[in-house]
User: What shape does this take?
Amino acid sequence: LPDIPGCVLMQSKDQITAGNAARKDRMEGKAAISNTTTSCVFQLLQEAGLYCRDFSECLCRTISTSIQVVLKALAEIEVFCKQIAEEEYVIGSFGITSSCWLPCGHQGRVVVLMGSTSDLGHCEKIKKACATFGIPCELRVTSAHKGPDETLRIKAEYEGDGIPTVFVAVAGRSNGLGPVMSGNTAYPVVNCPPLSSDWGAQDVWSSLRLPSGLGCPTTLSPEGAAQFAAQIFGLNNHLVWAKLRSNMLNTWISLKQADKKLRECTL
Assistant: This one.
């Protein structure tokens, strides 16, 4: 587009081809369906954080025959990217076997419990990291030492609405939040204590040495706590899973680029 540098107009048509255009036919309404499908595919890639500028053409077609498409709503789909110049194909073929991937309202949330508002800065980092995975995050203030009844009431509040939840316990000094929550809920609990430079080496043991029967792991990184929750939700949420996989790919690419740059400087 001359008026918009860096942008290209992609226009779909009603013509459908097979065998790299060896066979072709006209299907009324195909252009509108293709536009919607292509837009959704690129929107999904963008939301996942995947760099996709180098794709020359994106095609989506049904493998089944036209009769099967009419009779079977969940047809098998093949999505691939084609590099026109090289005639090379990167193909991924999959079938829809269940409706578990369909949007069904709330997909999960993270609830950060802090012992006091002095830990708010640490908790805000967890919330910000959760946002990168598209996971809602709520911040609450409660103390398992000073108000155990209120801590358990908050726990019951989130257990009762049916939304999958991961609790993150943020408590300095003696961590009572994580162990108390872990001992009273079947939901995942992770400790993320805000350690200080003065007593951090001693305080961390309250998050590491736990009574038997408790299973709340500990991570010192706010980003690590958010990723822990994302990996749990990614088992059933394809969008969170896609963001995790995209992060892994981008990390791999950045390492390769750094290695290449270093080798060029050395040589």
